[in-house]
Fold this sequence. Notes:
- The chain is an all-alpha fold.
- It contains six helices and no strands.
- The chain is about 60% helix and about 0% strand.
Amino acid sequence: MAEAGELQGKEQLVAAYKRILQASLDRRPSGTRQRIAEALGKHKSFVSQITNPAYSVPIPARHVTAILELCHFSAEERRAFLEAYVQAHPNRRQAVKPHPRAGTPHVLHIPVPTFEDPELQREVEELIRAFAARVVQIVQRR
């Protein structure tokens, strides 16, 4: 049977990765928790329990990848979160799946109004594509 100190230490480790997650969620638009609940097929109260450091309920390993994806973690946040998660749950290391889209392009959908002038429509869309391509080019040079 686990000692009280071991349980408290485990709870602190769980709270550590939940704090990283909570900080990310606080920067996301409202409705992110609901989107997580829908993606996991769970109720929003479940998401509240697994994202709040005050609760000792751990995040099931099978949900980690989906949560990281929905929260749009940066590479550094992802690394810190996964490091803390594995520290809290060393036996679950293999259950946490790698980033599902690593190496594949990410498609971003941007709503653009429909203009009456087809030439203007084409110019606006080309400008958006050119801007996105330039941003990617700059980032890839880093």
